[in-house]
Amino acid sequence: MKVSLNWIRQYVDLPQDLTMEKLSYDLTMRTVEVEGTENPADSLRGVVVGKILDVQPHPQADKLRVCMVDVGKEEPSTIVCGGSNLQKDMLVVVAVPGAMVRWHGEGEPVEIKPAKLRGVLSEGMICASGELDLQDLFPAEDDHEIMDISTFECTPGDLAADVLQLNDVLLEIDNKSMTNRPDLWGHYGLARELAAIYRKELKPLPPVVIPEGTPAYPISIEDSARCHRYMGIVYDGVRNVPSPYWLQLMLWKTGIRPINALVDITNYVMLAVGQPTHGFDKNHVQKEIIVRTACPGETLTLLDGQKLLLTQEDLMICDEKEPMALGGIMGGIKNSILPDTTGMLLEIATFDPIGIRRSATRFQVHTDSAIRNEKGLDTQRVVQAQSVAHELIGQLFPDASITSYGDCYPVATPDVEIPVSLSWLGTRLGRSLSREQAAQALFPLGFQVAGSGDSLVVRVPSWRATGDVSLADDILEEIARMIGYENFDFIPPAISLEKAVNQKNVRTERALKEYLAFHAGMQEVFTYPWVDQKFITAAGIPLESCLELAAPPSPETAHLRSSLVPGMLASIVQNIKYHDSFRIFEMAQVFEQGATHPSEEEETLPLQQRSLAAAFVGQDARVLLREAKGVLENMPRLTMTQPIRFDQVEKPAWADRKAWLNALVGDSVIGSLGVVSIKASRLAGIKRAQAALFEVNVEKIVPLASRTNVYHPLPQFPLVEQDFSILIDEDTPWQRIEALVKNNVQKIQFIEEYRGAQVPEGKKSVMFRVWFGSDTSTLTSEQIEEKMNGIIQKISKKLGGEIRA
Amino acid sequence: MRESLDNMKSKALQDILSVQTSGELQQVRQNYLGKKGELTVILKELSKLEPDERRTIGALANEVKDALNEAIQLREEALLDEASAIEGSIDLTLPGIMPPSGGLHPITQMSYDLNDAFLSLGFEVFTEDDITSEKYGFDNLNFPPEHPARDSMDTYWLKGCENETGAKRLCLRPHLTGASVRYLQKHGAPARFVYPGRVYRNENTDARHERAFFQYEALIVEKDFSFASGQLLMNTILEKVFGQHVDVRMRAGFFPFVEPGFEIDMKCLVCGGKGCKVCKHVGWIEVMPGGTPHPNVLKAAGLDPSVWSGFYINIGLDRLVMMRYGVDDVRLFHSADLRFLSQFK
């Protein structure tokens, strides 16, 4: 919201030496955030009034004129201008050389320099209103019309900003910072805050006295839960004419386009006290005002031309015949202020905020009126609005008079009284507080403080009593902000030490991630919980098994992940454009149909478990699979968790039919690994690369209480190292060779396997290394020979393998 | 002859000491002790001498021979020790051979750094499920029934329960604060804990806006805790992130779940508070909201608000990481793009 400081000053005498910085700071610290300040005069620095002395055709251009303009210098200036309405003796706005102009009110100011236009040197520019962003105050008939200020009393050379009275300070207030403060949505409310901050007096708004004998205007409220008060005042002797310049200027500066005097009055009242009002043409209102919800099938065409099909939820302002306005939101086009209006029925009403918000949202009409009414206004404010409106109407239309008046007032904003103790305030503020200090902070804001001794009874002003202030804690906040948060010193909290924090699950989650990142050389990635269904399908997960969002980011991302594999496939596709081989992992929650009650029985949430997935991308699927397996195999030792073993229990849908395994802790399957199947790769769009994945359920990884290191005494006698290369049936798994040899040696290690040239069809060559040793002596060559022969014979007898030459 | 032997010895010793390579040393050995070496020649001429003289000179010549051999051997060892392990030349500007390089996501890094800081103050780490209910996401937190954040325009509701209310209406959590009530219900008070996590908002995305982003929230609940103590939480976070003391200020702010509520600003580190482009010429940058838990929130958590009080702070991790490193597009965090992620170690 834009706030004019000149306007504020009508209600409070601010300190003379108050700088803009100080005011912005104080308001920001205590009340609402000032996002910026500006002076509209800054857009036309050095721009002056000029008087056109002569207009001649341009020798080179049909559409240009050469003007002699008095800009207050000794000699008239020659200015080339394309204006369609140039006339001798006209007063215009001239950007003379040296002036700094923010064209169209935007960007950085630009310095004006003399320039040749079609061969004629122009000493400046005669401005159109649009060029100065003043088109709302000086509407132009067409693009070529320059701004005519002949009606202003001024002399050539006067600063245009002064003549147009543009000097002001406009505060840009963050609307979000005052959603809870309906009282601040007008200048009077902000003036009250400033008066409180600077200990100045807020000028009262004099109440209007309705002349005795004024005929009553018939008003009935059928739904008093939705409309708490409706005041209708008929003014005769008004006309639909433009507002005086000062009024237009006030509205324009605060961001509202001037329209005509009657509409401008209603807008002015709203900006003054935050209370929306509406004007109806008196003669169009049939007999009476009825505030009621719409009947099915009723329609209303709004002022902006939008035609609404009303529902029974919408509260309407109607006459005897039909709805005339969407209550508290926008008037209808038919009965509002019209060109021939001579009498106005001024509506000042209080509505239930929830109904306003629902209707405004339903029809997407978030007017200034709706924005204020949906914050919850107090019924007492109607009187303030009446005061401002009455004074303004009297000023603009001295002949106007109130010819009829009604105030239907079924529900008053209730008085709120809050008991609060000084000692409690002192404890929570962290400093002792006297009764006087509390009253001093609260009184200027409109709170009344009563009670005795330690206990206070604080009476909340009506403008804060619509939900904003209702608890002792709210009173605490009022006092604290008025003292100023910057005036409270830090108090180190006192704590008691009972036991060390020891959260095994938190530790394990971090250990897993750090193991993968720092030991396994993998990069952590994040993906969204909603996944493009293409990748869900590629991973072989039935879409119908996934939870869905009611209003998803896009139609294809409606499903929530039940596995991290689809996200891994998407991440592979994302990165394969730039890298030939890489390793990534992600840990996040995945979601499944099911029932859990994390906090209470009444609340039933789906199954949500942390999952950990990793992808290994490269060219050789056999190697990638072994890399993935190695990372998993090594994980328990380095993360202080229970060991993992591998077996084939259930193939994951995305895995190659040959290359997959399950990971198990004890007998429980905790995850799987495998090469991404050709089909899954095709569906996901992974091209020219192979990938192996693993995914494990983190909830099933069992943290251990401490490290699992076991000490073995170092060998007393040297170990002997021997390599074997054997030729064996291709289907013989390494596990069998290892199991066979293990007991004959101290240690055995796989080195490599080989198929291809020099290896017969159906066979493979397997190379491994063993270490022999003895606890009692160094082995002799005969002993070594004997051990090696033992191994060779076992392999040949049990596995049909033979030693390669 | 004695004289020429002495001369030769000192010359030979000099030669031995001056050689720089073992090749040269061999040459010197050849020159003196070889078949036609100077000493060999002298020894050959011994036979021409008188027996007495032959004996003395012979003894002397053998001494010289031993001395030279010893000197040569010492020199040889010295030369060997001085030699390089590298054959030929070596380019010391070649890059090092890197260990396998992985890394944590920059958000995880920041989150762990903050966990460490809070752990040192005795805070626990708590995690809530991503899917929560309207009751825990809004009702418990003093959001009025008609609050706009409850709209599907703002919150991702799950399909099938959009029209339910309270505990039956489920959504991806719109913020972390709901987790605080879960923790307090379970563990009671006093309590000190942090609860980082991902939250979800239905919005249009651009370089500054995301649908899924990370928050870091911390809460202390103590008896009669003054908001003036809340600064501990802010300082802990900001000093950890920026590696230096950062001035903060608390100012009036409104959030349904706190009373009083604050906007917390930090002094702009670029200009030191003088005002610059980064802080929009204000000197301060808004970094986090905070405040005392609203009595209704404490009640929802089963605590008596007249006894218990406390302080919340909630910081947007994405924004903090963006500020810290100058990242210009929030969407990069969920891009899984290694060109981006691998920049953070």
Description:
Chain A is of the alpha+beta class and 805 residues long. Chain A folds into 6 domains: 67 residues, 2-Layer Sandwich (Phenylalanyl-tRNA Synthetase, Chain B, domain 1), CATH 3.30.56.10; 123 residues, Beta Barrel (OB fold (Dihydrolipoamide Acetyltransferase, E2P)), CATH 2.40.50; 190 residues, 3-Layer(bba) Sandwich (Phenylalanyl-tRNA Synthetase, Chain B, domain 3); 64 residues, Phenylalanyl-tRNA Synthetase, Chain B, domain 1; 197 residues, 2-Layer Sandwich (BirA Bifunctional Protein, domain 2), CATH 3.30.930.10; 84 residues, Alpha-Beta Plaits (2-Layer Sandwich). Helix content of chain A is 25%, strand content 28%. Chain A contains 19 helices and 38 strands. In chain A, strands 26-29-30-34-33-32-31 form a 7-stranded mixed β-sheet, sandwiched between helices. In chain A, β19 and β20 form a beta hairpin. In chain A, α6 runs antiparallel to α9, α13 crosses α16 and α18 packs across α19. The mean pLDDT of chain A is 93. Chain B is of the alpha+beta class and 345 residues long. Chain B has 2 domains: 81 residues; 236 residues, BirA Bifunctional Protein, domain 2. Chain B contains 11 helices and 10 strands. In chain B, strands 1, 4, 5, 6, 7, 8, 9 and 10 form an 8-stranded mixed β-sheet that branches. In chain B, strands 2-3 form a two-stranded antiparallel ribbon. In chain B, β7 and β8 form a beta hairpin.
